[in-house]
Amino acid sequence: MGENRNILLAILISAAILIPYQIFVISPMQERQRAEQVAQQSAAVQTELAEAAAESAEAATEPAVIDQRIEIVSEAVNGSLSLTGTRIDELRLNRYDTEVDDPSPVEFLRRRDGEHAFYAQDGWQALGEGPSDAPGFNTSWTLVEGNRLTPETPIVLEYRGADGLVFRRTISLDNDYMFTYADVIENTSGQTASLSRYARVRRDGEPPAPWAPFFILHEGPIGVVGTTLIDDKYRSMDPGDETSESGTGGWMGITDKYWMAAVIPDQSMEITGEYSLIGRQGPDTYQSGYVTQPLELAPGATLETSARIFAGAKRVDLLQTYEEDLGISRFDMAVDWGMFWFLTRPYFWLLHTLSGFLGGIGFAILAVTVLVKLIFFPLANRAYVSMAKMKNLQPKMQEIRDKYAEDKQKQQQEIIALYQREKVNPLAGCLPILFQIPVFYALYKTLFVTLEMRHQPFPGWVEDLSAPDPTTMWNLFGLLPYDPSGWPILGGVLAIGAWPVLMGITMWAQQSLNPPPPDKMQQRIFAFLPFVFTIILAPFAVGLVIYWAWNNFLSVLQQYIIMRRQGVETRLDTMIKNWRNRGGETG
Q: Of 11, 18, 19, nearest to 533 (Cα)?
């Protein structure tokens, strides 16, 4: 039983790493292949023809116009909106650089007539036998006030229907990413009008490079209807797929890792939220939107109502502010907290709070690791004491193995009896690992999905904690004057930075304190594990690697002190003694 303790420990740690690797790397590759096959099916072509016909019919009811645009300018965003359908289809996020070494703003929304089109818009549809001329998604509005949309200067648009409906729309922008569409509708006809407001977010194809899918992260259509969250990933949808939900209030949108575009109705209105994948001959189109229940407008009456469009960064505190101040149901669920939300949310709060006191997310990671170690200290302490006793028992266990070498059953019985006499639990060393697996996953999820980690530096060579370590061992971490990043294998799979190497060293140091497996083959396998984990973790976010290395270091320190108190001479002590002896002989 004691012989298998280290094997069980290795299996648990390997599972914590290799299973996510299978999920995050291998599974997305298989999903991509499946999606490419589906996209070639003839059903996609038929759906494209139907959608094109519907849009042509809508456009045919409205006059063709030149695409007039209004400039959008603020500290947070810049771009433009089209007066055709009041589409917000060109937007850059000024507060966020494209890359660490590229200071240009993140390009977020893209024009409908360009590659990777991504936009949001809001319109009306008329129902029943009353006036039918309402401004849809292809309607051209007339600018009546303002010439540039800023937080200080809203714009006013107007549309006069041919049968007596007059729509006056005021579009305003706050200091962040929320656009408000306030409409005043006047019915000058002699009939009652029945009107529904509808809005949508559309994206042609998947996000542009360097986007890649991850199992751990939700990216794609998302929304809340009433209090019900509905979502789907880009790669999990097939052309023709459609999901809908009805309720009071909510929002619908399309989200990426850090950014989201969402349409938000009046939260007191009954809506039907819906998302779908529309098959086309070119890139398939993802669509997410809502339609409200009809509103009745009597002859001569006026109706005032408003809706909103969010287009920007998923900063947690900002989403929560909108949720509280505007009453938007569960708006912070735009961030993918995951199945361990009860851990990821407190982790995020701790990281965010401590970073303000400590001067950065990196230092907050170190502090949170210490807090986690303190929480698990009693459990880890008992485990390390048990491991120290196990190490002291190695000579007695070897005597039992030698004495009963031909009788494995008797050998096992005597070893168990030895554990009982010495009050040693051989599985105690595994308990800290069992409890830390969900903690590790929750921290990884927090670091991976939250915007606050993006482009955050750490003292030394790390400029982005959300990206892999930028150094590589193949040029001695930048000391040699060449860049091996383009090399086959070494520049890709085996691109190992300084922090992964430090993590591997701390893992080896921790292993050196543990009782060695009795079997020589087991010893060789364990000796190789630090190298395997170093390679596996090298492409992970360096913030996570820093956490693991720091956690290992604290564990080594704690375990070494406990073992010395138990009178155990570790392999580290033996090596230090050998080095001193060699130094004395040399002297």
A: 18
